[in-house]
Design brief:
Elements: H1 2-28, E1 35-50, E2 53-67, H2 84-112, E3 114-117, E4 123-128, H3 133-136, E5 144-148, E6 151-152, H4 156-165, E7 171-177, E8 180-181, E9 185-187, E10 202-205, E11 208-211, H5 215-241, H6 252-265, H7 267-285, H8 293-305, H9 313-342
Antiparallel strand pairs: 1-2, 3-11, 4-5, 4-10, 5-6, 5-7, 7-8, 7-9
Helix pairs in contact: 1-2, 1-6, 2-5, 2-7, 2-8, 5-7, 6-7, 6-9
Length: 344
């Protein structure tokens, strides 16, 4: 139940913050917003009105939405009739809100206690692949491998060598978590792991230790971590487009798997996952694809290039409608792939 609840809360928070960015920016710039809904229709109740906008609670508990005139330039007070600057600001506000959320979450993570690399014997677990032998054995991000088959592990290279020496057969591992030793576990490293995963299904580096920081330290660290995450996602996306690495996408099923794993690991891992997903949502929505905020920004840019001459509203609407259909098909395909991976 906790993984399901965590997934609903995280997914709702990400979408709600995104739509809240659009909503507050539209109101601040004088754009008429007819409705701001918590969740998706059908409508359950109407809370009331705020500055001419209906505030509603809807049945499907995922995020929210902003209802305003985006495609009709003749609608009174609509977004489509405003200047390029206002439209660009409103279209980008949702993604900016997700970026701000990521900064806040990473900052709070450093305040609560973040996993920090330290120089000491052992090999730290930085990532555990869903469905891997490591996950099935209960190994979690932040654990430190102390010994394998009775052999003390001093560094990553020793851990890798001992794991490889035991592929296909049960091996005994001793680990520590948050400074305390765990009971010895038995795990069987895979002979033929999936592409991009090792025999155990983990990423290793220096041992990790959870450390808390002051607000003065945590805020700049939160900014830096957010920037580094944006850079890492950009580089991964570029490598995938160039064919250097496999192109992988996760839909709701895949995100649920990661959420369930983080929920089992603790609050800090849930906060980190939410921050990572918020950065992903920031970048995804700014992609220049129809139906996304980045696609709408492309039409604003085209209008500027064309000296103020706009693409007819009905043609732009058709492009976004077609883009939405493609995105739905893509989401169904990704979900199908996630289910296939889940079923092995």
């Amino acid at each position: 139940m906790i993984p399901v609840l965590s997934f609903v809360v995280i997914f709702s928070l990400l979408i709600l913050v995104h739509e809240l960015g659009h909503f507050l920016t539209a109101k601040a710039t004088g754009v008429t917003v007819e409705e701001f809904g918590f969740g998706y229709p059908p409508r359950l109740i109407k809370f009331g009105e705020w500055r001419g906008t209906e505030l509603t609670l809807n049945m499907l508990p995922f995020g929210g939405f902003v209802r305003m005139h985006e495609d009709d330039p003749d609608a009174p007070g609509g977004l489509s009739g405003r200047s390029r600057k206002v439209r660009a600001l409103v279209f980008s506000a949702g993604s900016i809100a997700n970026l701000i959320l990521a900064i806040v979450l990473f900052t709070s993570l450093y305040l609560l206690g973040a996993l920090t690399p330290v120089e000491r014997p052992g090999a730290g677990i930085y990532y555990v692949s869903p469905g891997s032998p490591a996950q099935e054995a209960g190994i979690a991000v932040g654990d430190t491998i102390l010994s394998i088959e009775g052999e003390t592990v001093d560094d990553v290279s020793e851990a890798v060598a001992l794991i490889q020496a035991g592929v296909g057969k049960p091996i005994q591992m001793s680990l520590s978590r948050d400074g305390r030793a765990l009971d010895s576990i038995t795990v069987i490293p895979r002979v033929n792991p999936p592409l991009g995963e090792g025999a155990l299904g983990v990423a290793l580096d220096l041992p990790l230790e959870r450390r808390s920081y002051s607000l003065a330290e945590a805020v700049p660290m939160g900014f830096r971590t957010t920037i580094n995450t944006v850079r890492a996602i950009y580089l991964s996306l570029r490598s995938a487009l160039l064919g250097e690495v496999a192109f992988e996408l996760s839909g709701p099923v895949g995100i649920y798997q990661h959420t369930a794993q983080a929920a089992r690991s603790g609050l800090e891992d849930l906060i980190e996952l939410t921050a990572m997903l918020s950065v992903n949502l920031f970048m995804l929505n700014l992609l220049p694809l129809p139906a996304l905020d980045g696609g709408r920004l492309v039409f604003v840019l085209l209008e500027w290039i064309r000296g103020g001459r706009r693409i007819p509203a009905e043609k732009e609407g058709m492009v976004h409608l077609a883009g939405m259909a493609v995105l739905i098909v893509l989401m169904l395909a990704v979900t199908y792939a996630d289910i296939r991976r889940l079923l092995g």
